[in-house]
Amino acid sequence: MKRALIRTSVVAAALGASALTSPTSAAPAAPAAAAPAAPAAGSIADGVTNDENPGVPVGASWTEHYFRAAQAGSPTTVTLHADVLRPEGLAPTEKTPVILSVGPYFNHAGQTGQETDEVQPSSRFDDLIDGASLMERGYTVVLVDNRGFGASTGCLDWMGAGEQADVRKAVRWSASRPWSTGKVGMYGKSYDAVTGLWGADLDPRGLEAVVAQEPLWNMYPYLYSNDVPRGNQTGTPLAYNSIASLGGTSGDTDRYNQAAAYEQQHPECLARNLRDNVSNTSQRDPYWALRNQAAKATGARTPLFVTQGFTESNTKPEQMEQYLRNHVGPTRGWLGPWEHVRGNEVDPRTGELSQGRSGFFAEVGRFYDRHLKGIRSAKDPAFAIQDNVGQWRAQRTWPVADTTRAVSIGSGRYVDAGPVEAAVRRGDATGTGLSAAQARRVAELQVPPTTVERRDGDVDQQVRSSLGTAAERADAELSVAGLLPTSYQTWSRPVRQETRVTGTPRVTLTTRGEGQVHVTMWDVDPEAQTATLINENVAELGARGRAFDLKGMDWTLAQGHRMAIGVGTITGGSWRPLPSGRVVTVRDATVRLSTQSTADDVATQGAESPWLARYLEDNTIGSGDLPAGTFRVPTP
């Protein structure tokens, strides 16, 4: 087990960061070039073991390598850096399969900020190396820095053509080494899970399997929702600019430190990354079409093992269904109600497995053994899925829809007033489209905006419920919101039997009037008189309305429960709304729903995710008096 890193400072989280100091003022300076720290024996070129450097995983021999990657259609050539961890004692040409990860978090100094000044390979996936016993089982681990990060040169480009070229080259390089069997599996979580999906899409020679935990399924929805900017629209590009500006350690070689300083020496890279991500706001822009891995997955055959939290507030299940539908190779997954966590992660509050299911590394090991070594062992479920009551089931694929139908959620109108600012809370309705009395009423009852919780030492910022904390919205009631001029609700009749709503609901609105829209979906318990937010999304409306997807979901409505769907202005959540202040008339609205019977569920092992109770607490409000239902949830 690698020793704990010495943390000297922590840069704000990467994926999910909503604000970050400009890297020109906050980025760590490149350390002065120095001779590498001398280990007890050997050198990095020859292989360094844990006995010689406690920063190397036990049982591994660490070497560094550099290789070139060219960007397709461009004369630009960059040099990529790789840390290679081989089972200790192997001859240089003794062949093993390779587990590869490509991403921005492998700098020797730390993942997202300066954590240590000891020269050593990144500890990001030591949990996999130790937990899956990769060295003992005869795997080589390769950690490759994306261009612009760590000791790889070139400009970072948010999974554009350059970083896609890096993925392809890293796989081919790993497969072609004299110590490689030619079979490569990719592994990652979050950003380096995205590079795994791109590996599957690009299908470079040698790639045989991909494990991707909590990825983005398309790069666009992380910064925008249907042309509405998210709160991290500028914070995330700035966060990655800062990570790219992180220098190496004082013990690293001159070559490493010079390469690690590339982005500091080329500020145009940082400026371009920020400009491109902020100026291209529409998903129709060519910039985003290039970065849509869900669309590019069409026909992909690389075996894939994914994890995804349906209640994720970071890398959300947006376009997951499209990716899995387009990907035609063998696909497996763990899906359920959890946050941005790894399959093996333990909840720090409860000591329980964060996803609730045991044996993640054992299952990952069997997945790699099958596809990289040809070893068939225990048969694991194709998909293990936890529902919102904490029960696990085995399923051949996801989603499984017994019935799909569009239901009418009626017409209505609302004022696109946006969040209530301080002036409105004082009763000043200027520019909101509200009267002073309406503004005061909205100010009294409107749900506060998002709160943010950071987890010390985690590389990912945690964004809690769109509703704020339980204390902040203690007096909020769903039925009251329908009386305000900023939204309206439509209610279903009670479901006749337990009904699972699954897949990706699609909203189609025919509207008049300029503005933005926020659609919310609720599970209403008539007996308890509570409503739980189970899905939502926002969009910029066109001249005649818009059709757009909500998030992927898997939520079971108990018998007798009802669904409520809200349509209105954007009052909170993780968005930067630009309200028009005008009345939006919804002439017609439908939501396409897919449902699944629970009668044929096949149980599999697993406990309730500890996140589920927190999600329910943070996303449940009073329902108030229940109006008559106007539509039926499709019966599976």
Automatic annotation (TrEMBL):
Which Pfam families would you find in this protein's record? Peptidase_S15
- Output the SUPFAM superfamilies linked to this UniProt entry: alpha/beta-Hydrolases, Galactose-binding domain-like
- UniProt lists the gene as cocE
Query: What UniProt keywords are attached to this protein's entry?
Result: Hydrolase, Signal
Enzyme category, top tier: hydrolase
Which region is the signal sequence?
A: 1-26
Species name for this entry?
Answer: Nocardioides aquaticus
Q: Which InterPro entries does the UniProt entry name for this protein?
A: AB_hydrolase_fold (IPR029058), CocE/Ser_esterase (IPR005674), Galactose-bd-like_sf (IPR008979), Xaa-Pro-like_dom (IPR000383), Xaa-Pro_dipept_C (IPR013736)
> What GO MF annotations does this protein's record show?
hydrolase activity
Q: What is its EC number?
A: 3.1.1.84
Task: Output this protein's name.
Answer: Cocaine esterase
- Report which superkingdom the organism of origin falls in: Bacteria
